[in-house]
Structure formats: C-alpha cells, structure tokens
Design a protein that fits this description.
Length: 278
C-alpha cells in the first residue's frame, strides 16, 4: 500500500533511533517526541497521533471525546490476508485506538470548537464509515451549537475493506460540511503528512479555510502512481504543501509550533450566524 512507504515502516516502534524520511538524518526518538515529532535537522513534520494532536491544540482539561464507541460493520465480509473484522480488532489492540479518527469538543484559547483528528496509526488513517460518520456528526454538532469545526487529516484515502460504503463517505462528509456552511457555520481543515486519496478528494479540501503543515504530501493518487501512469518525471516538490500553495489549492502553511496560535486567531474572526449554545 502507498502509505507504507510514507514513513510508517521506517518509523520502527521500540527503536531508539529512526531515520528522517526527508533529510535521512538519524534522529534520537526521544528528541523527536519532545519536539512533537518535528525533525530537529530539516524541520520535517512527521505524522502525529490523534491524541497528541488534541493535547497540543486544545486548552488543557477541555477535551471531551464524542462518539467513542462507533464500530465499522463488515458488510462485505471482506477478507484479504485476514478477515476485516479481525483486522479491526487487532489494529485496536496494537494502536490503542478504537478507529482511525477521534472526535471531541474542547476549547482553543477559550474558544469552544468541535475537533476531529484522523490517526495514521490506525489502518493508515483510512476513511471507512466510522470516519465519515464522525466527520458528519461533528458538522451537525457545529450546526447545533454554533461551534466552529476543525478537522485534522492524515490518511491513505478510502478504506478498501468497506468497498462502496467507504466511497460513500466522500459525498456524506461533503454534504455535512455544505449544510454547516449554509447554517452559517465555520470549518477549518488542517492537512498533515500524508493526506491522500478520498480524504483529499472530499472533506479535507472543502472546508472554509485550508491549512497544511510544512512539507505535507497532499494529493489524490500518489506521485509514484502518477509518474508511472503518465510516464513523465514530476516537477520538484510535486504534491507537497509548498507546491500546492503556489497553485492556490491551500490557503496557508502553518508549522506545528504555530498551529494553535493561528487557529485561535482564525477562530477570533468568526461570529456564529446561528444561535450559539456554548
Ligand atoms: Zn529531517
């Protein structure tokens, strides 16, 4: 799978050192963790787990998880090397996550928000029905309460194990964001490395404000697939955040240490059109 080449395999669990996928320097794991997984040499932003993302974004003590028990149905009885239902159970044990997304309410510098974060550590942050459902419910909660909705993404795309149901989440999440906008709501998408496939092609790209972390790979098909299909060499930096901002696909690149401040500033511009129940 594409996502296995995007740092997951090189990021060996338990190892004291790991190799930066951008500058190839060896990094002491503890140092990387203390810098919230930003390379000390080249500033590459490694994928961050959902729980840590909440920790560095929300005001302490304000995190309240929503819909933690949603579970995917194995409608297709899908089996690759193992049954999909068994894969979900195993991944839960290994990742200590229930699904590839955590949704919550909380505050950023005293401004109430609904926030949902994809976690690449759970089946490559893939979007199945639970991811789609939590994004949609986050938007509905945004409409009900007047809270802005903030979505952080890192994903290999739609979850193939769920077939058409996973693809349907693209339309569902876009519909939910559209209803949020019509109700006077406000949404911010923060795309982190890597955001690809059906997630890029749906909710990550249709929020009011589109942010990306430096160096994040953002695209639909991966660069290797495009290059092989077109039989062309791709331009330098293709599909990276810095390339996309030149093309006008995103609004700003925000480094991890500035993200909380910038989100707070953006939130300060927003006045809910709906009656806020905070
Ligand atoms: Zn580096």
């Amino acid at each position: 799978m594409e996502w296995s080449r995007l740092g997951k395999k090189r990021d060996m669990p338990g190892g004291l050192w790991l190799k930066c996928e951008s500058c190839a320097q060896m990094i002491f794991r503890k140092e990387l963790e203390s810098r919230h997984r930003v390379c000390p040499t080249c500033n590459f932003h490694f994928t961050l787990g959902a729980r840590e993302r909440f920790e560095i974004t929300l005001d302490p003590g304000t995190f309240e998880e929503k819909w933690p028990d949603l579970t995917p149905q194995d409608r297709l009885k899908f089996t690759d090397t193992i049954k999909y239902s068994d894969k979900v159970i195993k991944t839960r044990e290994k990742s200590k996550l229930q699904e590839a997304i955590i949704a919550a309410t909380g505050e950023i510098k005293n401004r109430p928000v609904v926030m949902a974060v994809l976690d690449f550590g759970f089946m490559g942050g893939s979007m199945g029905e639970v991811v789609g459902e939590k994004v949609a419910r986050s938007c509905e909660l945004g409409i009900e309460t007047g809270r802005p909705v903030i979505l952080f993404t890192s994903s290999g795309g739609a979850r193939m194990h769920e077939g058409a149901v996973s693809l349907m989440q693209m339309a569902k999440t876009c519909g939910a964001l559209s209803r949020l906008r019509k109700a006077g709501g406000f949404s911010i998408s923060c795309m982190t490395n890597p955001t690809t496939g059906g997630v890029t092609a749906s909710f990550a790209s249709v929020c009011d404000i589109l942010l990306a972390e430096p160096g994040a790979l953002i695209g639909f098909a991966g660069p290797r697939v495009i290059s092989t299909t077109l039989k062309q060499e791709l331009p330098k930096g293709f599909q990276r955040a810095e390339f996309l901002i030149e093309k006008g696909q995103i609004d700003a690149i925000v480094s991890r240490d500035k993200m909380r401040d910038d989100l707070a500033r953006l939130l300060s511009y927003y006045q809910p059109a709906v009656k806020a129940v905070l």
